[in-house]
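Figure caption, in words: inputs first, then the predicted bound structure.
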Amino acid sequence: MQTMTTGDRTIIGQQAEQPVGGIAAGCQFASDNTAGFCPDAWRTLEAANAGCVASYGNDPWTERACDLIREVFEYPADVFFVFNGTAANSLAIASLCQSYHSVLCHELAHVETDECGAPEFFSNGTKLLLVPGDGGKLTADGITQAVERRRDIHYPKPRVLSVTQATELSTVYSLDELGAIHDACRRHNLRLHMDGARFANAAVAMDLPPRRFTWEVGVDVLCLGGTKNGMGVGDAVVFFRKDLAEEFAYRCKQAGQLASKMRFLTAPWVGLLEEGAWLANARRANAAAARLESGFRDIPGIEVLGRREANAVFVRLPEPLAAGLRACGWRFYDFIGSGGCRFMCSWATTDADIDGLLADCRRLNRDADGINRRDRV
Ligand SMILES: Cc1ncc(COP(=O)(O)O)c(C=O)c1O
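Bound structure (pyridoxal-5'-phosphate present):
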């Protein structure tokens, strides 16, 4: 049986796409997972390959990566490294609740739509309660309604709120919005988990010190994305409440998330963080999305959807144009969020990539116009 990976979603039993020269042509817009290591992360990974060091995280690279994360957040957080965002989210959420609790999240949250039930699995049956909200965002009112819907013993007790920053729809919670969410969490006794798979993109969009929109607004645990930011593999779990991190190392080990050669997960973090490459990478990805968005706006027939603040652009494309782009080799998703096509940019997206895509849009539109005119004659 073949598995076909269309960026973030793997379809079992279909013909796998044949890569051209190692990279499927045009796949750079399918996901920020399609990019490789950024040069800074690669440099420290290579440096870490020299010699022997202690295993399971007792090495200088891991210590340095933890210290750098603490510096970035200006907080003595407890930090753990896992292989991917699903593990980070699931294990972090499991550490915040008991099996009879529920976790409130947006109805489009990755923990709901794309983690194969892992958050429920790792917390032994916790239920996700889905909350609607414009632009992929939760609101204090939505949270209150969800909490107050049921309060009886027959329903799982709300204990955790999960927010995604930047959101699945490429929007970013403002400081005020996070403040209101924090108040709602306090009112309803909810612990606050932040899925920060694209935290760096949010940080750049907000242009604020990371402490301002994490522990200062009540985030208990942050899953900090490395993979989409320029690592090859690996995300970090950052606990701002130390009591919640107790025995988390055992959770990681039991879940198969304790890397024996930990330095290869952590050395790239050092490269990303020590001179600010993590922000430079996110800035490049967000700027690429801004350039793409503005190009799309100039093309008749393409409708930009929503309010983009991070590194993905959502558009409505006429069906023949979408099909034409795919036939040219461009890859993008049409199943994320509440409709439209998603074009995701990464640290590696170039102006030439964007200009090439936009040129194909214009050419396909011209060709379609020509055919329509011929048909009318
Ligand atoms: C919002 C969000 N959270 C978490 C993840 C991490 O998922 P993975 O387990 O594929 O690394 C992703 C990846 O697409 C994501 O978009």
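The first helix runs from residue 39 to 48.
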